[in-house]
Amino acid sequence: MAAIDGLPPLREVIATHELVAKKALGQNFLLDLNLTAKIARAAGDLTGCDVLEVGPGPGGLTRGLLAEGARRVLAVEKDSRCLPALAEIAAHYPGRLEVINGDALAVDVASHLTPPIRIAANLPYNVGTELLIRWLTPAVWPPFWQSLTLMFQKEVAERIVAKPGSDHYGRLALLAQWRAEAKIVMVLPPEAFTPAPKVHSAVVHLTALPAPRYPADPAVLERVVAAGFNQRRKMLRSSLKGVHPRIEALLEEAGIPPTERAERVNLEQFCHLARLVAAG
Ligand code: SAM
């Protein structure tokens, strides 16, 4: 029986194209089209938007994004075995799906997209984290995207939305919340995926702010935050020693006790410190 969009059910697609999941590519597929439509809706109003999807696999989320009205979807998939299944979706939605066979970490997507642009993906978590950092740290803000709707391991999602003082608070929380509004919009049990991973997953929705919450040079802020959390149980005056020769005085000027630990310092204080470090 055909699915709601008139295309074959995903189990059939996987069987037809022999898409046995590959662990090395982090393949845990979503086969429930109601669920992929729900994730597509969590990405916001897609009408009139180009959507960049990374890692479409057999195309469950791709179908959700197209059915929810995306103007165009640009899908970047590393596994060439998925291309015939994606070509069937492209034929069903003429002119609305472009597929690039490549590594999302290497492909330059910007020239294929027209604003407004949203990004949606269910990716292996290591690729997802690396892309998230890249999308959050361009030299110029606002970025090319309006929102990111990304699946992560639940523990990683918690690190993105964490507040100071929590065990999950660190580099990801600071970089995400500096330039975006970040929230967890869905939690999924392992059984939602085929094959089922060991852990729960969560969808995080990030909306780009028109300007960062506090001024700071992204490269300097990243350096300060990375050094601070590299040895998160250490006092900042020692973990940040390599960042600036007068770090103790700069910490005091930023209103941060030099004996404080990174996990208790908020975004405003980190940005203030990054500005003082940048000033030399
Ligand atoms: N989006 C599909 C879904 O929800 O069912 C597939 C999700 S699966 C977790 C991750 C997908 O990302 C796989 O199709 C995998 O081949 C692809 N992938 C892994 N690494 C990638 C990379 N560096 N660039 C592009 N795609 C990648």
Which terms would index this structure?
alpha/beta; two-stranded antiparallel sheet; 9 strands
Summarize the structure.
It contains eleven helices and nine strands. The chain is of the alpha/beta class and 280 residues long. Helix 2 crosses helix 3 (60-67).
Oligomer status: single chain
- Residue stretches low in confidence (pLDDT < 50, at least 5 long) are none
Output the radius of gyration. 21 Å
| Helical fraction | 25-40%
Q: What small molecules accompany the polymer chains?
A: S-adenosylmethionine
The succession of helices and strands, N to C, reads: HEHEHEHEEHEHHEEEHHHH
How much of the sequence lies in strands comes to 15-25%
Strand segment count: 9
Report the structural category: alpha/beta
Largest sheet: 7 strands, mixed
What value does the average pLDDT take? 96
Distance between the termini: 67 Å
Q: How would you sum up the global shape? A: elongated
Description:
This protein is an alpha/beta fold. It has helices at residues 10-16, 33-42, 60-67, 83-92, 125-136, 154-161, 171-179, 218-230, 236-239, 247-253, 267-279, and strands at 29-30, 50-54, 72-77, 97-101, 117-122, 147-153, 180-188, 193-194, 201-208. It is elongated and about 70 Å long. The relative contact order is 0.11. Bound molecules: S-adenosylmethionine.
